[in-house]
Each structure stands twice: as C-alpha cells, then as structure tokens.
Amino acid sequence: MKFKQLIPTASAWAHLRFVFSVFLLPVYLFAFSQVQVIHASSAILVFFIWHLLAFPASNGYNSYFDRDEDSIALLAKPPEVDISLYYFSILLEAVAFLLGFLINWEFAFAVLVYGIMSKLYSHPATRLKKYPIISFLTVFFFQGAFIYYTTYSALSGLSLFRHWDTGFTVAGAICSCLIGASYPLTQVYQHAEDSRRGDRTLSLVLGYKGSFVFSGILFALGIALSFYYWHSQGRMLHFYFFVVCALPIFLFFNYWFYKVGQSTTNANYKNAMRMNFLSSACMLVYFGVLAIWG
C-alpha cells in the first residue's frame, strides 16, 4: 500500500456519504434523551465516533465492494470507486475504535463489532447482503437496538451488562422497528441492479407491494411499542407527540404506495429519497425535542 492511497479522492469523499449519518441520528438522540445525567464531553465524543467515523466508514466500505452503477442512497449518479475509498474507510474505522477507549472498553468493542458486521454485510467472501433475511436482521439489529443500547451505556457511564430491564429493551426495539421499516424502501428502486449482481435483497423477495406492506407492519409495531414504553413511564404526552410527528410519514408513505400501485416506475430513487428525508426529518424533530426536553 502506498501512502497516497490513504488520501481520499473526491470519489471516496462522495461515497462516505456523511449526510447518510443523519438518517441514524434519531437513534442517538433517543438514547441521549433517556440518560439522566449527560456529560458533554462524552456526548460529543460518542456522536463524533458514530456519525463522523464509524457510519461513514461503513458506507464507504460497502460502496467499494458494491461498485454501484445506478443510483444509491444520496448519490443519484455514484462516481466510480477507487482504492483510496477502501483504505480510508479502514482508517476511519480504526480511529473510531481507538477513540472508543476514551469512553470505555465496552464502547470501543461495540464500535469494532459494528465495523465487523458492516464488512460481513458487503465483502464478497461473506456478503450477507445476498441473503434477504440475514441482511435484514443485520441492519434491523445493528443500526437500531445495538446503536441505542451501546450509545445509552456510553452516555450514562453504566455497563452494558448491568442495566437490562423492560424499558431499556423496549426502547432498543422501537429503534430497530423504525430502522427496519425503512429498510425495504431503500431497496425498492434497486431491483434491477440487485438482480444483476446476484443480491437477493428483502425488497426483491417481497416485491413492490410486499415491501410496502412489510414496512407498514414494522412501523405500526414501532408505534405500538412506543405506546407501551411511554405509557409504562406515565409520559403519554411523549407518545402523542410521536403520533403527530409520524403523521407526515404516514401520509407520504400511503401516497407513494398508491402511486407504485398505479405504476412500478414510481418505485424510483427520487421518491425513495423523499421518503428517507421526510421520515428522518420528522424523527429528528421528535427525538430532538425529547433530547432538549429531557
């Protein structure tokens, strides 16, 4: 490896897709809002490690092996990847792992595990992405509950192995349901390319209609779990606010589902990004208010 290969090109920076981290920010904000005492230095460092190092590293590593030619999340026309993307994504991940020890060894290990799973997801030798159920469960858990549990533990200073209770478990499940609900819809416009590459994604298996039905069921489950969570804490106002914030998502989801029912050409990149940005914006408002309110 030459030193210049560690210097990311413009293409590499594009494939890191830092803005994509915004889609996962609600999970961090939810964990932040539920911690009783926040230390600013830990909160900033945990945010930096996840959203500016670990998540972009995962995006870049995934893009390097996917070598997409058609649109992917946030890149309507993805530039051709080069070797600097591979090495720089590894470097970002290594820095994230080492910085994790400034929080504690458990958090550093969590960052390492997340990185390993992202590699298993996309590397040709394992490529979990080829298997619809395994790939879904990987994203469902590791971008949802796993991030919540490890972030909460890091921010609270509590060991991940010492504070498991119903509320903690359900909160992570809410995150997984919300992440899982969006997962097939991020693939619904990629059927042709996924088929060409041999990846049997969940959306490809479910089909257009099935992808929307599956997403709707998971989102409904997330709402039900949210009701249980806030009811058990005697904070139903938090749940009602969640319903208000989720209403625009519900309306656009049904509108898009209707349009796809008319023509599958509407299951396209443009509408998928609209769905992603709308749902992310609504959840950022909700969990952001909770974080400030808390």
Write the layout of secondary structure elements.
Elements: H1 10-16, H2 25-34, H3 40-66, H4 83-100, H5 105-122, H6 132-156, H7 166-182, H8 191-197, H9 202-232, H10 236-262, H11 269-293
Helix pairs in contact: 1-3, 1-4, 2-6, 2-11, 3-4, 3-5, 4-5, 5-6, 6-7, 6-9, 7-9, 9-10, 10-11
Q: How would you describe the overall organization of this protein?
A:
The structure is a single chain. This protein is an all-alpha fold and 294 residues long. The chain has a single domain (3-293), classed as Farnesyl Diphosphate Synthase (Orthogonal Bundle), CATH 1.10.600. Helices cover 72% and strands 0% of the residues. It is built from eleven helices and no strands. The longest helix is centred in the C-terminal third of the chain and has 31 residues, at 202-232. The protein is globular and about 50 Å long. The termini are far apart. The model has no long low-confidence stretch (mean pLDDT 91).
What is the residue-mean pLDDT, rounded to a whole number?
91
The unreliable regions are none
Supply the helix-strand structural class: mainly alpha
Q: Distance N terminus to C terminus?
A: 48 Å
Overall number of domains: 1
Share in β-strands: under 5%
Shape: globular
Here the CATH topology equals Farnesyl Diphosphate Synthase
**How many strand segments?**
0
CATH architect. name: Orthogonal Bundle
Quickly count the helices: 11
